[in-house]
Write a structure and sequence with these properties.
The complex is a heterodimer of chains A (512) and B (427).
Chain A (H helix, E strand, L loop, with lengths): L17 E11 L4 E11 L2 E3 L8 E4 L3 E5 L1 E6 L4 H9 L14 H10 L2 E9 L4 H8 L6 E6 L5 H8 L3 H15 L3 E5 L3 H6 L20 H15 L5 E4 L9 H10 L5 E3 L7 E2 L9 E2 L1 H10 L3 E4 L6 E7 L2 H11 L3 E5 L5 E9 L4 H16 L6 E2 L13 H9 L1 H8 L4 H6 L11 H16 L15 E5 L4 H6 L3 E4 L2 E5 L2 E2 L16
Parallel strand pairs in A: 1-4, 1-5, 6-7, 7-8, 8-9, 9-10, 10-11, 11-14, 14-18
Antiparallel strand pairs in A: 1-2, 2-3, 5-19, 12-13, 15-17, 16-17, 19-20, 20-21, 21-22
Helix pairs in contact in A: 4-5, 5-7, 8-9, 9-11, 12-13
Chain B lengths: L6 E5 L2 E6 L3 H7 L2 H7 L9 H20 L3 E5 L5 H14 L2 E2 L13 H4 L1 E5 L1 H7 L2 E5 L3 H4 L3 H6 L9 E6 L12 E4 L5 H12 L6 H6 L4 H13 L2 E6 L8 H16 L1 E6 L11 H12 L22 H6 L5 E5 L4 H8 L6 E6 L11 E4 L9 E4 L5 E4 L10 H18 L9
Helix pairs in contact in B: 3-16, 4-13, 4-16, 9-11, 9-12
Chain lengths: 512, 427
């Protein structure tokens, strides 16, 4: 049994009012409505077919664009690692909508963009209670967490014994105890290598874990199978091995092959799509083409991109060795914390520069992914906030995708070697408004397994974003005219009008 | 006290079957004053008189705080995270400064983590992984009495554990004698750390430089050999008190260098039994997610506040009289008590007291809450971030701190809504 439910004493209070949104141009791809003028009716926080009573409020949305509230399925918004991010880059936390805002600022800024649901993509079970306390201070949004269950000692032990029932029981217990929504694996088995002091020994998927007989590939396959059998709404959320390293596209391809026929979600795929050899920047490049080809052929797979955008931010990951590698390479402040019987995390500030060869490649590779995936229902727009960029940069990214001329101008500014070698310049695809709606709302909701999000059909949560049509997509998506959360007006012309408490999604699988 | 494994039961209004407490914890938990105050030894049942008296006190406190030009909310290290949230609600309502009075936010250079970072681990990771423990100018026995017993004395699962004491004097406790002591003078800490880094980086050691600062080359070699032989190094340190933060940075740099080659982490011990309670880490976490920094918050603004370490920390705000009212919540640390002692003649202090009343200073107004150790349930964080679940053992005749803070917040809100607006600013 899987129940999205409110936690703590707090829950969404649906106003017992009815609202009619009249004459807006609706983009609701999940219900086959792409730019049609129609009315939307809301009662008690949900969309209904029609109102039989006179609505208590009516909004005339003639000429305005209506979409479901945005859904971010891979972000980092709460918990010890996020607090470490605030502390390691305090200048980015104070009074700026920059890398790691406070909890209240995070909720407000997301809502001001028209987003109404967010998932924190990496929470260790031991930190879950604290994360929920922090999320209770994050207003407006509905939220959920993905648990780093794969780093738990008892889960690794059950995988070592290849005992499916035991693995399923451990996952179920952790999800229930920690009120998690999904299972995340960050560098499968990586914490075992890390804690055994193995450095500079970036493993492939078939190296056995020190002290064990299983390999990272075994972990991925067994976890994905257990999650399918448990019937969790979101498949295994995978951050595979060798994140950020030149030549890691081969590891990623092996990861895709591991899931052949099994549902899985590949997180921040941009960081896993590099050609090249270790320490050889001249061979660094894009491995997107073969990966995207495989991905397009396998409908059981979904992904989010983790696009980087230029500027200062903070990197944070449950992959301690990736963080150490980056910190050692760049020399910036670095925080690492190893947790008892679990994995750990690494946090460091980072700045992506337009003229930097590697950063230019990363930028181009992310966009290449967006433009190479043929089915927008299997791809979610993310920057892996704050790793690739702050979430407030989403409108800029949407313009890069929906405005080829704007993108071409941006390509002209990046490193010349990337400009000449990347296929990005030859990709002329432009995302339509409907496709942008899919990759920011409908697809992430569907991928996350949220039945009442990402669409505006009867029964859906009345999370509605209303935009003014504008040829400048960045301006349009930056400043919604209205945002309603569960039928409550929360944002008007960029101003947050109210701070309702959102619900927290938790998954309670039954495992006999 | 600081240990999450302390257990006891209650019989005939007495603490019995006390397990896992150190001498400090035992004395505190069994303190007759504490039991008396907590209502464990029942004086009289709670009456309507108690409630009305508390109501008047809360109104008086709200009035006092609302009329101040600039308020500091501090203490908060002895109370639960749930209560700390209510305390920060009050700070936001008052537009107050907020700081837990921890040493890290009083260093002018700011927290080490922003300058160089931190490579650390849960304390159990030290116990289960470290085959070399370096106690660098710290004496856990004096701040964390059970640290040795719980985390260093147990055998290392991966073989024998070696312990090196580095400092100015050998450990006092006789049973620590079998461990190696390496003398380094206090003023040579930084040169020693830099020399160790140089050797580990295989840079030639500058013998002249060593001589200039009287460094013992044998000590350097001894430490480096130990580092190289170990598979996992735990570098245990005390709180760095140098105002410019160089020492703290150098320690992190050494650990960072080691951790590039092998498993290594620093265990920075906090004030321990001198912290004024066991939840300084909780306070830092809460202030960080609410305001963006672990303390020294100039104005509690949930959208992001300016943190000014060494400027807006509790001790300086009090000692410089930059606030005219203080809301002290819970048990103050020793340093905070001293600062309040010297300032209470010119400051108005409202103390929400969760333990036997301190004698070091005289608050303007004191309101008792339930005892934070004996009569409160909630969440604490150990210094390494590990969650500790606190379970109430007694029903106190006093309200819980969370309830008291909620009452105070309601009273302040009522004044702010109904009364004249106060324009606040730095006096």
């Amino acid at each position: 049994m899987i129940l999205p439910h409110a936690t703590f004493q707090e829950s969404t209070v649906h106003p017992s009012t009815s609202i009619s949104l009249l004459g807006g141009t609706l983009y609701d791809p999940a219900n086959g409505k792409n730019g049609v003028v129609c009315d939307i009716h809301i009662r008690d926080g949900r969309i209904v077919d029609a109102l039989h009573e006179t609505p208590s409020r009516t909004l005339d949305l003639s000429g305005l664009i209506v979409m479901p509230g945005g859904v971010d399925i891979h972000s980092h918004v709460a918990g010890p690692k996020v607090c470490s991010g605030r502390r390691i880059a305090p200048d980015l936390a104070n009074n700026r909508p920059a890398a790691v805002p406070t909890a209240k600022a995070t909720g407000s800024l997301y809502a001001a963009l028209g987003y109404t649901t967010v998932f924190d993509a990496a929470v260790s079970p031991s930190a879950a209670h604290l994360v929920h306390m922090e999320l209770a201070d994050l207003p407006i949004l509905d939220k959920g967490i993905y648990l780093l269950v794969a780093d738990e000692q008892r889960v690794i032990d059950s995988l070592e014994r290849r005992n499916r029932r035991e693995t399923m029981a451990a996952i179920s217990q952790s999800l229930a105890a920690c009120r998690g929504w999904a299972v995340k694996v960050a560098n499968p088995g990586g914490c075992v290598f890390w804690k055994r002091g193995l450095r500079g020994d970036h493993h492939d998927l078939d190296s056995t874990l020190p002290g064990y007989s299983i390999s990272p590939r075994d972990i991925l396959r067994q976890l994905a199978e257990a999650i399918v059998e448990l019937g969790l709404p979101h498949p295994l959320h995978v951050h595979t091995a060798n994140l950020g390293l030149p030549g890691n596209w081969r590891t990623t391809m092996e990861t895709l092959r591991t899931f052949d026929g099994l549902r899985a979600h590949l997180a921040h795929i941009q960081f896993h799509s590099y050609t090249g050899g270790d320490c050889d920047s001249d061979t660094f490049g894009s491995g997107v083409e073969p990966l995207a080809h495989w991905f397009n052929e396998h409908s059981e797979l979904t992904l989010d991109v983790g696009q980087i955008l230029f500027g200062r931010t903070v990197a944070m990951t449950g992959d301690s060795s990736a963080a150490e590698h980056l910190a050692h390479t760049t020399g910036v402040p670095w925080r690492s914390h190893d947790e008892y019987l679990e994995g750990g995390c690494g946090i460091l500030p980072i700045e992506y520069r337009e003229k930097n060869l590697i950063h230019s490649w990363q930028w181009a590779i992310g966009l290449e992914w967006f433009l190479s995936v043929s089915d927008p229902w299997r791809i979610a727009l993310t920057t892996d906030h704050p790793n690739g960029a702050h979430f407030t940069a989403y409108p800029h990214l949407m313009r890069l995708l929906g405005d080829a001329a704007f993108r071409r101008a941006a390509v002209e500014r990046i490193h010349p070697l990337v400009r000449s070698r990347s296929p990005l310049g030859s990709l002329s695809r432009e995302y339509s408004l409907s496709e942008l709606c899919i990759i920011t709302r409908a697809a992430p909701a569907r991928i996350a397994g949220l039945k009442t999000k990402g669409h505006l059909g009867p029964g859906a949560d009345a999370d509605v974003t209303v935009y003014r049509r504008d040829a400048d997509l960045e301006r349009m998506f930056s400043l919604p005219a209205f945002v309603l959360k569960a039928g409550t007006l929360v944002v008007e012309d960029g101003h947050v009008r109210s701070y309702p408490v959102g619900q927290t999604f938790a998954c309670l699988p039954e495992c006999s | 006290m600081l240990c999450e494994d302390v257990e006891f039961s209650v019989e005939n209004e007495r603490v019995v079957n006390l397990l896992h407490a150190c001498d400090v914890g035992r004395a505190s938990l069994c303190d007759p004053n504490r039991l008396l105050r907590s209502g464990v030894v029942a004086l009289e049942p709670q009456s309507s008189t108690d409630s009305s008296a508390r109501f008047r006190l809360v109104q008086e406190a709200a009035s006092l705080l609302s009329s101040a030009r600039r308020v500091l909310v501090t203490g908060i290290t002895s109370i639960t995270l749930e209560s700390q949230r209510r305390a920060s609600d009050i700070a936001e309502c008052l537009g107050a400064a907020i700081d837990a009075g921890c040493l890290d936010t009083s260093i002018i250079a700011g927290p080490t983590i922003a300058r160089i970072g931190e490579i650390t681990a849960s304390w159990e990771e030290l116990r289960d992984r470290a085959d070399l423990v370096v106690l660098w100018f710290c004496d856990p026995d004096s701040t964390h009495p059970r640290f040795f017993e719980r985390f260093i004395d147990p055998p290392c699962p991966r073989g024998s554990r070696r312990v090196l004491w580095v400092g100015t004097k050998p450990p006092v406790a006789t049973h620590r004698g079998e461990n190696t002591f390496i003398f380094v003078s206090a003023e040579n800490q930084i040169p020693m750390l830099q020399s160790l880094k140089a050797v580990l980086q295989q840079s030639p050691l500058e013998k002249d430089a060593c001589c200039r600062v009287m460094l013992d080359e044998k000590s350097i070699e001894q430490l480096c050999e130990a580092f190289q032989a170990a598979s996992c190094v735990a570098f245990v340190t005390e709180q760095a008190s140098d105002s410019i933060g160089v020492l703290a940075s150098e320690r992190v740099k050494l650990v960072r260098l080691l951790s590039h080659k092998k498993s290594a982490f620093q265990i920075p011990l906090g004030a321990g039994i001198h912290a004024g309670g066991g939840n300084a880490a909780g306070a830092q976490a809460l202030l960080t997610w609410r305001y963006g920094a672990p303390g020294a918050i100039e104005v509690a603004d949930p959208f992001g506040s300016r943190s000014s370490p060494g400027e807006s920390d509790a001790i300086r705000l009090i000692s410089r009289r930059e606030v005219d009212a203080v809301l002290l919540i819970g048990s103050p640390s020793e340093s905070l008590s001293v600062a309040l002692k010297h300032a209470t003649s010119t400051l108005r202090v409202v103390h929400l007291c969760d333990a036997p009343r301190p004698t070091a200073f005289s608050p303007t107004l004191t309101i008792d809450s339930a005892d934070s150790l004996l009569a409160t349930s909630g969440t604490l964080l150990r210094e390494d971030g590990t969650r500790v679940v606190l379970q109430a053992k007694f029903s106190s005749r006093h309200p819980t701190m969370e309830l008291l803070l909620a009452e105070l917040l309601a009273a302040i809100n009522a004044i702010n809504t109904l009364g004249p607006r106060t324009i606040r600013g730095t006096p």
